UniProtKB/TrEMBL annotation:
The gene is ahcY. This is Adenosylhomocysteinase. GO terms for biological process: L-homocysteine biosynthetic process; one-carbon metabolic process; S-adenosylmethionine cycle. Substrate binds at residues 55, 126, 171, 201, 205. May play a key role in the regulation of the intracellular concentration of adenosylhomocysteine. Its cofactor is NAD(+). The lineage of its organism: Archaea, Thermoproteota, Thermoprotei, Thermoproteales, Thermoproteaceae.
Length: 438
């Protein structure tokens, strides 16, 4: 098969380089790592397959991996999140890119086939579709997605594919859940670093990054005023926390949390939010945002209880949290109101508005997380790839070593001009001793 890149339009590359320049200006930690990678070439001779959202921030990571000596193959982790100008710019620079905005399901899995045809040594994943596909091939699963993979890659030898893999990374909560399920089933076939479990990833990316970019997507798609409205957030993990905090900051009249975990629900209450089941929240909400990582957090039954004019958005990785298929089935009318905003008329005459087909609202209707927060996430990704390259890992799901996490935080603070306090020798002795007390 052809190893040539496939993007929407190479003539967009000039605009893509401008976007990459702006991202690099705001990602100083990753740029510091790139300087070291250029000197040391820790990824020399290795092929890295990255299944990530093809954004300007991802482009900065890809350039950093290439600076470290890697041959990089980039494919999208979502059919609607690719920034075509960035894909074009990277393809012109020698990165193998197979991505364009608006891919069909077939084209999406064709892209995975393209990446696997390079027999990568390291995989970087966001949602675990690439990793799961490798496992399907290894275990001989032949579903429609695998048929699409083989259309581009040809039949792949699962044993040979796995034998060449040193390890992989996973960027999101949804993906880590899938990978732990693989491990618990005794089916995981190569080591994975759960980058999502690094403090400098989930505390900042999920809370501050998604908190801001989700509302950016909602407001670009609708241009509605948040102040005075009732906002319902499904899920009070780190993503849900960020969305709820920003809703309150934007002046929402009520911020209601829907949660199944009693500890998280209690935390939401103590943080000053209302907590109730979706059945009740559906009757009072104006804007609904899902962040659970689970299917049908907003079901068809919930939708029928909603006010005329309710807005639905999803901030979880996959488009399964809102029952879009059910909505499509029962709606008596559907029309596009604005880019990425569809109006559905229900049999009861009420209308609901769905943003971005129920896919990741911040990447479909906006540009994803701000570069400053992706600086932390992708610094973790780059250092995780280096860690895999330098260490022979047993098959397991790992957390990135804490010292790497702290180094990323230290570098970020340094670039922000923030100084840390230092322990005195007396303080070091005190916290390392069991004899000293009151």
């Amino acid at each position: 098969m052809s190893k040539e890149s496939r993007v929407k339009d190479l003539s967009l590359a000039g605009r893509g380089r401008e976007q990459l320049y702006w991202a690099e200006r705001n990602m100083p930690v990753l740029m510091e790592i790139r300087k070291r990678f250029e000197r040391e070439k820790p990824l020399s001779g290795l092929t890295v397959a990255a299944c990530l959202h093809v954004t300007k921030e991802t482009g900065v990571l890809v350039r950093t991996l290439a600076a470290g000596g890697a041959r990089v193959v980039l494919i999208p982790s979502n059919p609607l999140s690719t920034q075509d100008e960035v894909a074009a710019a990277l393809a012109q620079e020698g990165v193998y890119v197979y991505a364009w905005r608006g891919m069909s399901e077939r084209e999406y899995y064709n892209a995975i086939g393209f990446a696997l045809s390079f027999n990568p040594a390291i995989t970087l994943d966001d949602g675990a579709d690439l990793t799961a596909t490798i496992h399907k091939i290894r275990y001989g699963v032949r579903d429609q997605s695998i048929e699409y993979v083989y259309e581009v890659a040809g039949p792949l030898d699962g044993e040979r594919l796995v034998s060449g893999l040193r390890g992989g990374t996973e960027e999101t909560t949804t993906g880590v859940i899938r990978l732990r399920a693989l491990k618990n089933a005794g089916k995981l076939v190569y080591p994975i670093i759960a980058v999502n479990e690094s403090y400098t990833k989930y505390l900042f990316d999920n809370r501050y990054g998604t908190g801001q970019s989700t509302w950016d997507g909602v407001m670009r798609a609708t241009n509605l005023l948040v102040a005075g409205k009732n906002v319902v957030v499904a899920g009070y993990g780190w993503v849900g926390r960020g969305i709820a905090i920003r809703a309150r900051g934007l002046g929402a009249r009520r911020v209601i949390l829907v949660e199944v975990d009693p500890v998280r629900a209690l935390e939401a209450v103590f943080d000053g939010f209302e907590v109730m089941p979706m059945d009740k929240a559906a009757e009072v909400g104006d804007i609904f945002i899902t962040a659970t990582g689970n299917i049908r957090a907003v079901s068809l039954g919930h939708i029928f209880k909603m006010k005329d004019g309710a807005v639905l958005a999803n901030a979880g990785h996959f488009n399964v949290e809102i029952d879009v298929a059910g909505l499509e089935r029962v709606a008596v009318a559907k029309k596009t109101i604005r880019p990425y905003l569809e109006e559905y008329t229900l049999p009861n005459g009420r209308r609901v508005y769905l943003i971005g087909e129920g896919r990741l609202v911040n990447l479909v209707a906006a540009e994803g997380h701000p570069s400053e927060v992706m600086d932390l996430s992708f610094a973790n990704q780059a250092l995780a790839a280096e860690y895999i390259a330098k260490n022979k890992l047993a098959v397991d799901v790992y957390k990135l070593p804490d010292e790497i996490d702290r180094e990323v935080a230290r570098l970020k603070l340094k670039t922000m001009g923030v100084e840390l306090e230092e322990l005195t020798e007396e303080q070091r002795r005190y916290i390392s001793s069991w004899e000293l007390g009151t």
